[in-house]
Amino acid sequence: MNKALFASMVLMGAIASTASHAETIKPVRVSQADLAGSIFNRKDTVTKNENGNRSSDAVTYTSPDNAYQTGVYKSGPLHEEIKGPEGLPYNEFLYFLSGSVKLTSSDGSVMVVKTGEGVTLPKGWTGQFDTKGYTKLYVTYDPAEANKAKQ
Q1: By C-alpha distance, which of 50, 51, 68, 121 is closest to 59?
Q2: Coil, strand or helix: which one is 143?
Q3: Is a pLDDT exceeding 50 seen at residue 29?
């Protein structure tokens, strides 16, 4: 057997071996029990109590490039101002499992999003976020993180 053929066979074997040992990518499930609140009992849930607002964040998935993330978040009463010039630093979809939020955009327009409803806040949105408390399922996407990963 010539050296070139042997080297090719070794290389192909290494590639096949690597491919067969690659990690299988699997779906990430959030159960009904999780959404009912048990997810906040996980050890990796981040709970904060800042300025009288208690919140809990259970991240369910973060993409390898850190640009895309999903999770379940719970907040007590909150008034938050998201100001310019950049505004919200990422795109976010929120689906309310409980509670509601009043969103007042910087032009003064108001939207109330209630339990069972969803809303998308585009990157750059500015305004006020007011709630008496809620639990949401969320998805965020940050194109800046995706661009960092490509560099």
Answers
A1: 68
A2: helix
A3: yes
pLDDT digits (tens, 9 = 90+) for 70-90: 999 999 999 999 998 899 999
17 or 129: which leads in pLDDT: 129
Specify the CATH number for the domain of residue 40. Answer: 2.60.120.10
| Phi and psi angles of residue 24, each rounded to the nearest 5 degrees, phi first | -75, 130
Residue 17 lies in a domain: no
Residue 3 lies in a domain: no
Residue 110 structure tokens = 């108001």
DSSP string across 55-79: EEEEEEEE-TTSSEEEEEEEE-SEE
Position 12 in a domain: no
How many domains, the chain? 1
- Under 8 Å between Cβ of 119 and 91: no
Residue among 75, 90, 91 at smallest CA distance from 129: 75
User: Is residue 8 situated within a structural domain?
Assistant: no
